Amino acid sequence: MSMQPHSFGLFRSVLQNRSNVSLFLEQASLRSQPLKGKSIPNQTMSVLGRMRERQKALWPRLNHDATPLPSAWNPKDKFNLLELSHNNCKVTYKGQGKGDTDAAAVRANAFIPPECGVYYFEMLVRDKGREGYIGVGVATSNVSLNRLPGWERQSWGYHGDDGHTFASSNTGTVYGPTYTSHDVVGCCINFVDNTCFYTKNGTALAVAFRNMRGKLFPIVGLRTQGEVVEANFGQDPFVFDLEGYMEETKAKALATIKKRTLAESRLFTSAPEKAFTSLIASYLVHHGYTETARAFAQDSNTELQESEESIRSRQHIRELVLGGQIDESIAAVNQLIPGLLASETELHFKLKCRKFIEMVRAGATTSESLMQIMQFGQELQQMSEAEQVGAASLKDLEDAFSLLAYPEPTQSPVAGLLNPAQREPLADELNCTMLQWLNLPPVPALELAVRQSVCVLNELYTQGVGMSGFVSVDDFVPESKASKQ
Question: What are the residue boundaries of the CTLH domain, all occurrences included (predicted)?
Answer without folding.
Answer: 310-367
